[in-house]
Each structure stands twice: as structure tokens, then as C-alpha cells.
Amino acid sequence: MKHLSCGPVMIDVALFEVDAIERERLQHPATGGIILFRRNYESLEQITALISQIRSIRPDLLIAVDHEGGRVQRFREGFTRLPAASVYAQEGDEDLAEGAGWLMAAELRAVGVDFSFAPVLDVESGISQVIGDRAFGTDPFTVTRMAGRFLTGMHSAGMAAVGKHFPGHGGVVEDSHKALPVDLRDLETLESRDLVPFRTLIGQGLEGIMPAHVIYSALDPQPAGFSSFWIQDVLRMRLGFDGAIFSDDLSMAGAAFAGSYPDRAQMALDAGCDMILVCNAPGAADEVLDRLSNLPSDPLRTQRLERFRGRTPFDRNHLEANPAYKSLSARLSRLAQ
Fold first, then answer.
1. Do 147 and 197 form a contact (C-beta atoms < 8 A)?
2. How many separate helices (H) and strands (E) can be counted in the chain?
3. Greatest Cα pair distance in the chain
4. Domain range spanning residue 72?
């Protein structure tokens, strides 16, 4: 099937199925993706039906979810309960991290989700309110090893990956959902610590990156996701990243400095984001879509985003009949408790 030019806006839907107003939103030419939340999930059958409904309206939309494990796992009943990322280092088991990446991706692909916003590449410093055990470790080399194996697992299940939150959210106390954090560290410190996992996984074929709603005040006055310094100079030029860049949610407090939702969207796109997320604010999504109605198509952006279409189909019944899957699922569930 020939895919259409991929719009730059990722939005959400309210509940278990698409209503008439949401159908119009999905059909807007600037819409390129849907992110699903816990409120969208009732059962395996229901989420499969919702995704089928979305595909019937717009077959070309990318469908994503935050499904890291631990505190951030949107689908629960019927899915393996995944442990927090920090558990793999505590277990000292890189093979388990790779298995978890594969299992997470396989279960999501079996219901039709294209990709998960994972893995977290932040290096936890023991102070963050929002990262904490979502990080694979407290030193860059542990994070790099464990997240690298998780990435390998995702790839083996045919799922592209998004590393977050560039250039590293683990060194600030504040939660960017609620405030705009400021990180005072210099580039040399960041390069020797927080940037290590990003640099290495880019070399391992990482397809996507999500910048942080964090200001690194020694380097640039704008938060990373709105900064051409971080996106163009550091990520594109210095690190040689040629994949897709997804903004963090523009409805978070860390994005409010940029003004109205259309202004936030325009600023993120101008800085170099390929796809912007507008979540939990349908009125704001409408404003952003209206602003971007006549945005010219960008073949390079479309090419980057095309890599996020799920490549490997999985059948849930075949998964559940696989002894290795069942054993791995049981072990991960025990660790999650």
C-alpha cells in the first residue's frame, strides 16, 4: 500500500472508540499519528477493535503508546506487567532487558500498535521526581548497555524505538509535566554523562528521539525540544542523528513558556521536530491542526516517520502457545511485583 504524506501532529482520542468529532480530527491532513492512553484500554479485544476503527478511518496514521514498564505502562490487563527499567541492572541481566524489549514490542504489535515511546535513555542522578526507576541506571554505561539490549529486542520484534528525553532529564529535580526544569550543567558534563546513551544508541540504529522540556541554561535559553541548538547543532550535526524527532507533549507545563498551543507547535517544528504531540487537550489539538492546515508536505519528514510503521505482525494466540514467551512473561511479571 502506498502511504500518504505523514502529517506532523500526533493527537489522542477520549475513550474506547472514535466518535464523530474525533473522526474529523483523524481525517485532517496535518494529523499523522495517534497516541493511546490507559483510558483507551479496556481489554485486548476492545483495543484491537479501536485500532482497527482508526485504521479504517486513516490507514496511514501511526499508532503509538507509552509502554515502558513500571509506572509507565498504559495497557495492563491481558498484557505482561513489565518491571521498571532499573530492575534489569539490579538483576544484572542484559539478556532479560533484551527479552523484555522483544516481549513489549510483540504484545503491542499483536493488537496493531506501531511503536512505543521507549526506551528511556536518561541517566538517573538520584534527584529526579519524574525519572527515578524509569531509568536503566545511575551511570551512563549501565544505561547504555541495558537500553541497548532493550533496543535490540524491540528491533527483533519489528518495532522502531524512540529514545527519551534528550539530552537527559535525570539531572533535574522538577517534573516537566508540572514545571519547566532548568539544568545548570555545562556541555562537557552532559557529554561525559547524559549524552553517552544517546550517542551510542544512535550508532545502533535508534530511529527516533524525544527531546526534554528542560532548559540547559549554560548552553541555550530554550528547552531542548524548542531549541535549534540542541536539535540541529548537537543532535543532527554533532551526533549525526538522521531519524525522527518527536516533541514531548505540548500540553505539559514545560511547554507553556512558548505561549498558545499553535505557537508551541510552530516553535517546535521550526526548531526541527518532525512530529509534535498534543495530548489530553482536544480543543488545543483543533487549534494546532487549523494553524498547520496548509503546511507543505516534507518528503524527508515523511521518510523518517515511515520507519515507525510496525514491520512484523504477531498473532496473540501464537505468542501464548510459545513456551519461551510464557516463561519470559511469567518472569517479568514476578519482577514487576
1. yes
2. 13, 12
3. 54
4. 9-55+62-328
Query: CA nearest 116: which of 145, 88, 89, 151?
Result: 151
Q: Hey, is 24 helix, strand or coil? A: helix
Q: Which of 102, 169, 23 is nearest to 332 (CA)?
A: 102
Q: Could you give the dihedral angle defined by the CA atoms of residues 317, 323, 329 and 331, in that order, rounded to the nearest 10 degrees?
A: 170
Q: Is residue 333 part of a domain?
A: no
Q: Considering its fold, how many domains does the chain have in total?
A: 1
Residue pair 157/314 in contact (Cβ under 8 Å)? The answer is yes
Beta bridge partners of 245: 209
The domain that contains 141 carries what CATH number? 3.20.20.300
Residues 41-90: pLDDT tens digits? 999 999 999 999 999 999 999 999 999 999 999 999 999 999 999 999 99
Asked if the structure places residue 131 within a domain, the reply is yes
Q: Is 248 an annotated catalytic residue?
A: yes
Q: Give me the pLDDT at residue 5, please.
A: 64
In a domain, 202, yes or no: yes
1 found inside a domain: no
Instruction: Indicate which residue of 177, 233, 286, 298 is catalytic.
Output: 177
Is the preceding peptide bond at 119 cis, omega within 30 degrees of 0?
yes
Write down the pLDDT at residue 232.
Answer: 97
pTM of the model: 0.95
In whole angstroms, give the CA distance from residue 29 to residue 323: 44
The answer, yes or no, to whether residue 3 has pLDDT greater than 50, is: no
pLDDT band with cut points at 50, 70 and 90 for residue 130: confident
The pLDDT tens digits for 199-254 are: 999 999 999 999 999 999 999 999 999 999 999 999 999 999 999 999 999 988 87
Q: Which of 60, 114, 183, 248 is catalytic?
A: 248
- Are 332 and 80 a contacting pair, CB within 8 Å? yes
The CA distance from 205 to 171, in Å, is 26
CA distance linking residue 132 with residue 129, whole number of Å: 7
